[in-house]
Amino acid sequence: MKKEKGLLIVLSGPAGVGKGTVCGALRRENTSIQYSVSATTRAPRDGEVNGVNYFFKTREQFETMIANDQLLEWAEYVGNYYGTPIDYVRETINNGQDIILEIEVQGALKVRERFPEGIFIFLMPPSLAELRNRIVGRGTETEDVIDKRMTVARDEIEMMKRYDYVVENDQVHLAVERIKAIVTAEHCKRERLIEKYKELVEVK
Ligand code: 5GP
Fold it and tell me: Whose Cα sits closest to atom 9 in ligand 1?
């Protein structure tokens, strides 16, 4: 029987909405979902580990990855490159395991072009004021970067229309539950199961 492919799940949304926090909480629950580690040219923040949070690269190294077609998508975001290494994503879904990509909206649109069968989830902030609080609260950015990120965020919220699901991040544990429910429902879709139950459906 043909092995069912894993799901490619894209979690995106505006800057500061809490994609990283929600993804981290989901990861700690030890579900069977795998996580894609992105490459970036931005400097590591305190506590970030190469190969766990990101693969930290120079601009030159990143541009070589682009030239060699090693990235499923990439985007330039607030002065740095971010991209998804393609090999791990391919191997994981071909092995029948689900994988989640936590990426910003330009990259998510590019993934949609290459993997239209992906599941696109938009993480929504409860309000713009709350979004700004979260960006300021993180305390890792200068005023200038915060303003830039808020401008980008307003345009990014518009992108909600291009997604399959919208999950409000009012509370992290609730957002995590909603994402798990989406993944469960996607696995129950008829078109994914038709092959598995073929014999049963044929015997009338
Ligand atoms: P941060 O610098 O706060 O870790 O990430 C900045 C933004 O880049 C976040 O919105 C994050 O989701 C996004 N990002 C992280 N990895 C990738 C990636 O591989 N591709 C794209 N397009 N965006 C990413």
Answer: 104
